[in-house]
């Protein structure tokens, strides 16, 4: 069975928070949107999205409500809370630092 | 974490717990929605419907698996699983009943004893006083230590001086409980009651409220007020049956009619247990001229309230200063050599003074017992834990994590400890009555002892604490141990070296603690024996005593000396004529009970050495037959005679120790002595010279442990009679004679009060009874610990033998015979015993010092007691080891080795 995410540890939370910062969405839509936006580079397994979403909800970063979806069925829509918005900033900052550190390292000239 | 987040998280957790079905349904719906949308999407991309759905499910990676993952995010799983754990624990304990019941009983004893002791401690020492602002109340005590007066009380002029000069005390109240009072209610039968004459502000100062009617106020002070009485709650319940109509009724107190105006709320009574509080006008004596003006006429206790922002220390300094001014201004009232001084303590400290040491000691003993109980249960758990190591491995192999296993153990132990705690609580509640009776000897607050929420909470916390400690004793094994392959025959039954050491140390600790407790008990028991052997100076068997006091307004009544003497002599003579009575004697007091009066005495031609306080002695008047009736030996001179009456020369007899104090080695007979001091102004006795005609043996009237009581005796017929007491030497059983004697007295004086009926044996026993209770308490603790420790050492050896069966088999097949094997096992136990006794000996030497004040005739390091306890402990210990040793010796090598 696949691990929750093949991504760098913790980045799935960041991606989900970012998706929800754009607009409230249901789980399935988040998965679709991730694939589209990353041009299929980021392969997030559908299944690992849900534990991640529930964890974020239990942590109070996102909140959920049942709404009609685009095809007129009830779906659970997630949206960012105020605390979640702050958390997104924190994690974005972390990610930037990590990414720039890694890219600086891999660009070192070999002698 | 922000409040905002908590407001979201908390309801979610609650929802997960209490609306579990909803949450699960929603989770299902959410995942179903995902599958449907993905299926549609797949169909849109050209898959057949079935394949599309299968692909969607595959992409999700197993719905049930994802659900489990989601459930893990809720953080409430442990609660959901708790029920299962408890059921499992109960099932597993039911399978090992012997283990479970031993553990529950052991813990019940430990927790029960602790709960009981804590209840005692909380009811008396720890709870704040019920008085309003009780922490601000102080108790003043005036003493003259160099003259052995620990509390001389205060006189009216003294209190007036303190009141005028003190700025650290905002209010002072007077409380005088020294006059005998009899109360006659509607039924006409007199009862002797403990009565306090109080200043009107008393209740206001001590901060107490009425439950009925009113209390006294300043308007009740002075000679013009109407006599009023306030009943204590206890007396109201006991004597008037809690009748609410009592308020407004009049009762006769001595010869005054007083109106009952109210009933006081239940409150600890200090310094003396009191039935009725009256204002000064009710006690004519308290308004008499000497009482009001005489500085040495000391009859009152003083309770006071600290002024705002004043500490006890500040009050102490100020009162010390006021007192030294007073001693300087009135040298005649404060004999220099007596070293008068004033002490200030909080009322709370004063009330707890006697109880403190004893109760903390018992609490310590209780904690000891709990410690031993826990050590033993830990051992049992340890042994069980070894047997279960395989079980743990199997569980780990099936996917239980370390945390989960630890939790399983905690739940099991919690179940045990809580059951033990519940049983223990029942034990404590059952023993409450006994506890209160015991505590009443030491603390005026014993009737406040009850099991309340805090006590229950402490019991609960103790149980949980014990469970947690026990849960970390058995090994679950590190990660490595848990991933070890299960050996096919992997049934390990031995402990690792470290664990063995822990187990053995626990046994040694038990024996050591036991040694300490038993030594304490032994010292107290030896103290009892020493006290039992004390010569009181009074014959013990077949001597019956009782008091039949002067009634009415005592001070006026005692002036009627001829009538009183005639009445008492008639009663005595009638009693002497009863069959079964050998000798009947009348006196002012009963032997071995403290004398009502203690007077300063001077001797003719004898000057006081510098710094020598005036000698003082118990003052008793007795009739000629008193010494024969009590068995007090006449050592020199003559006894009293029928001719020593009013109008004949005044004579006296002194006790041997007092004769020595006054006259050294000179012959006292023929010398002259006289009462002296300011106190004579307030007694009916004269300071005229009396000729010493005899010397008698000493008695111990102030308790068996308190040395001889210097005493001066004078003829009953020659002095004023302040009290009546009867001493009867019988040939018949005193219990049979008692009603006949009472009848004889009532034939002469139908309303005569008879009290304190007791044989000399009983009086002696009263003095020892509290100590016996103490000794029994500590001995019970010690015995409990002893039994637990012996079970402990036998258990450890049995376990050791069981796990070494194979080894023993090999030894025996190599030629070791049964006695040798037995010696080996006994040696193992003996080493533990020896270590325990040795450590316990050191512990006892260190700790029994706190018992010092409870001992008599022996030192806390009494070698005989230490030796005896050590030998008993070792002997019983070896006997306990014999059972497993014998089992080891019976091992059949062939069987043992085949089993391997």
The gist of it:
The complex is a heterodimer of chains A (111) and B (900). By secondary structure, chain A is of the alpha+beta class.
Tell me which protein chains meet in the greatest interface and how many residues each side has.
A-B, 30 and 32 residues
Helix-strand category of chain B = alpha+beta
Query: What is the 3D form of chain B?
Result: elongated
* Number of separate structural domains of chain B: 5
Structural shape of chain A: elongated
What low-confidence regions of chain B span 5 or more consecutive residues with pLDDT below 50?
477-493
Give the N-to-C terminal Cα separation of chain B.
60 Å
**What is the count of DSSP helices of chain A, taking H or I runs of 4+ residues?**
4
Q: What's the mean pLDDT score of chain A?
A: 83
The description of the largest β-sheet of chain B is:
12 strands, mixed
> What is the helical fraction of chain A, as a range of percent?
55-70%
Give a structural overview.
The complex is a heterodimer of chains A (111) and B (900). In chain A, 56% of the residues lie in helices and 14% in strands. With 111 residues, chain A is an alpha+beta fold. The longest helix of chain A is centred in the last third of the chain and has 25 residues, at 82-106. The N and C termini of chain A lie far apart (42 Å). In chain A, 37% of the residues are buried. With 900 residues, chain B is α+β, with helices and mostly antiparallel strands. Chain B folds into five domains: 3-75, no CATH class; 76-132 and 355-492, no CATH class; 153-339, no CATH class; 507-535 and 762-900, no CATH class; 549-609 and 616-753, no CATH class. In chain B, 52% of the residues lie in helices and 14% in strands. In chain B, strands 1, 2, 3, 4, 5, 6, 7, 8, 9, 10, 11 and 12 form a twelve-stranded mixed beta sheet that branches. In chain B, strands 15-16-21-18-20-19 form a six-stranded mixed barrel. In chain B, strand 3 and strand 4 form a beta hairpin. In chain B, helix 18 (497-532) packs antiparallel against helix 24 (760-803) and helix 25 (805-813) crosses helix 28 (893-899). Chain B is elongated, with a radius of gyration of 38 Å. The A-B interface holds A 1-2, 4, 26-28, 32, 45-48, 50-51, 54-55, 57-60, 63, 66, 69, 71, 73-76, 81-83 and B 2, 4-6, 8-9, 12-13, 26, 29-31, 33-34, 36-38, 40-41, 56, 59-62, 65-66, 69-70, 72-75.
């Amino acid at each position: 069975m696949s691990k929750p995410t093949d991504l760098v540890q913790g980045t799935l939370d960041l991606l989900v928070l970012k998706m929800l910062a754009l607009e409230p969405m249901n789980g399935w839509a988040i998965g679709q949107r991730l694939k589209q936006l990353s041009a299929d580079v980021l392969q997030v397994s559908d299944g690992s999205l849900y534990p991640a979403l529930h964890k974020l909800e239990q942590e109070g970063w996102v909140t959920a409500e049942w709404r009609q979806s685009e095809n007129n069925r009830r779906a659970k829509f997630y949206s960012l809370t105020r605390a979640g918005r702050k958390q997104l900033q924190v994690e974005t900052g972390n990610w930037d630092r990590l990414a720039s550190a890694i890219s600086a390292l891999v660009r070192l000239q070999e002698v | 974490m922000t409040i905002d987040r908590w407001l979201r998280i908390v309801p979610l957790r609650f929802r997960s717990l209490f609306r579990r079905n909803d949450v699960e349904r929603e989770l299902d719906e959410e995942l179903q929605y995902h599958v449907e949308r993905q299926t549609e999407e797949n169909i849109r991309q050209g898959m057949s419907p079935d394949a599309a759905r299968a692909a969607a499910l595959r992409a999700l990676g197993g719905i049930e698996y994802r659900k489990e993952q989601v459930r893990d995010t809720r953080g409430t799983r442990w609660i959901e699983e708790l029920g299962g754990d408890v059921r499992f624990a109960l099932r597993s304990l039911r399978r090992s009943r012997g283990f479970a019941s031993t553990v529950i009983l052991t813990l019940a004893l430990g927790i029960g004893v602790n709960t009981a002791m804590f209840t005692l401690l909380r009811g008396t020492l720890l709870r704040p006083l019920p008085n309003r602002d009780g922490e601000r109340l102080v108790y003043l005590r005036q003493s003259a230590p160099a003259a052995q007066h620990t509390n001389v009380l205060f006189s009216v002029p003294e209190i007036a001086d303190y009141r005028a000069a003190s700025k650290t005390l905002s209010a002072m109240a007077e409380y005088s409980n020294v006059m005998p009072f009899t109360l006659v209610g509607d039924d006409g039968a007199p009862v002797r009651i403990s009565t306090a004459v109080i200043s009107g502000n008393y209740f206001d100062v001590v901060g107490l409220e009425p439950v009925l009617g009113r209390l006294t106020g300043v308007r009740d002070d002075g000679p013009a007020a109407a006599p009023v009485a306030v009943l204590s709650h206890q007396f109201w319940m006991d004597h008037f049956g809690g009748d609410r109509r009592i308020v407004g009724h009049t009762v006769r107190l001595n010869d005054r009619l007083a109106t009952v105006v109210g009933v006081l709320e239940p409150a600890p009574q200090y310094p003396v247990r009191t039935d009725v509080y009256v204002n000064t006008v009710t006690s004519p004596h308290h308004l008499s001229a000497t009482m009001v003006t005489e500085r040495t006429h000391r009859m009152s206790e003083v309770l006071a309230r600290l002024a705002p922002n004043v500490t006890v220390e500040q009050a102490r300094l100020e009162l010390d200063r006021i007192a030294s001014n007073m001693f300087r201004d009135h040298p005649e009232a404060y004999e220099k050599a007596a070293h008068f001084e004033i002490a200030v303590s909080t009322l709370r400290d004063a009330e707890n003074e006697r109880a403190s040491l004893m109760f903390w000691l018992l609490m310590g003993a209780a904690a000891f017992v709990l410690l031993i109980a826990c050590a033993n249960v830990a051992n049992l758990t340890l042994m069980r834990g070894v047997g279960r190591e395989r079980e743990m491995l199997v569980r780990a192999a099936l996917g239980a994590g370390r945390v989960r296993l630890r939790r399983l153990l905690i739940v099991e132990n919690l179940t045990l400890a809580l059951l033990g705690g519940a049983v223990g609580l029942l034990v404590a509640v059952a023993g409450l009555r006994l506890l209160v009776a015991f505590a009443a000897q030491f603390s005026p607050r014993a009737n406040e002892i009850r099991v309340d929420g805090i006590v229950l909470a402490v019991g609960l916390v103790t149980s949980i604490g014990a469970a947690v400690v026990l849960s970390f004793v058995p090994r679950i094994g590190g990660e490595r141990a848990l991933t070890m392959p299960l050996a096919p025959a992997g049934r390990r039954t031995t402990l690792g070296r470290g664990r063995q050491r822990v187990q053995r140390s626990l046994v040694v600790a038990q024996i050591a603690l036991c040694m300490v407790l038993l030594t304490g008990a032994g010292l107290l028991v030896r103290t009892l024996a020493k006290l039992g052997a004390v010569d009181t100076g009074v014959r013990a068997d077949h001597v019956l005593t009782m008091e039949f006091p002067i009634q009415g307004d005592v001070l006026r009544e005692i002036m009627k000396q001829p009538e009183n003497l005639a009445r008492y002599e008639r009663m005595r003579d009638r009693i002497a004529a009863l069959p079964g009575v050998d000798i009947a004697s009348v006196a002012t007091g009963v032997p071995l009970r403290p004398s009502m009066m203690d007077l300063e005495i001077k001797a003719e031609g004898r000057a006081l050495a510098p710094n020598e306080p005036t000698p003082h002695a118990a003052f008793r008047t007795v009739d000629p037959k008193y010494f024969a009736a009590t068995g007090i030996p006449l050592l020199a001179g003559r006894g009293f005679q029928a001719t020593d009456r009013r109008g004949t020369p005044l004579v006296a007899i002194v006790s041997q120790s007092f004769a020595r104090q006054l006259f050294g080695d000179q012959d006292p007979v023929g010398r002259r002595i006289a009462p002296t001091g300011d106190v004579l102004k307030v007694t009916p006795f004269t300071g005229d010279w009396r000729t010493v005609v005899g010397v008698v043996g000493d008695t111990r009237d102030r308790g068996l442990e308190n040395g001889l009581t210097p005493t001066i005796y004078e003829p009953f017929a020659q002095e004023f009679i302040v009290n009546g007491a009867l001493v009867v030497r019988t040939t018949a059983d005193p219990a049979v004679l008692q009603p006949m004697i009472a009848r004889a007295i009532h034939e002469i004086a139908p309303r005569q009060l008879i009290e304190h009926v007791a044989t000399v044996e009983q009086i002696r026993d009263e003095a020892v009874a509290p100590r016996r209770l103490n000794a029994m308490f500590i001995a019970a603790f010690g015995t409990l610990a002893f039994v637990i420790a012996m079970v402990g050492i036998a258990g450890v050896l049995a376990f050791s033998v069981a796990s070494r069966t194979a080894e023993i088999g090999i030894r025996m097949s190599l030629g070791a015979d049964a006695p040798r094997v037995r010696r080996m096992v006994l040696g193992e136990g003996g080493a533990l015993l020896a270590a325990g006794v040795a450590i316990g000996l050191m512990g006892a030497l260190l700790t029994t010092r706190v018992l010092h004040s409870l001992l008599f005739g022996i030192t806390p390091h009494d070698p005989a007691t230490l030796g005896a306890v050590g030998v008993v402990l070792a002997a019983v210990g070896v006997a306990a080891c014999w059972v497993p040793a014998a089992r080891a010796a019976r091992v059949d090598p062939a069987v043992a080795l085949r089993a391997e």
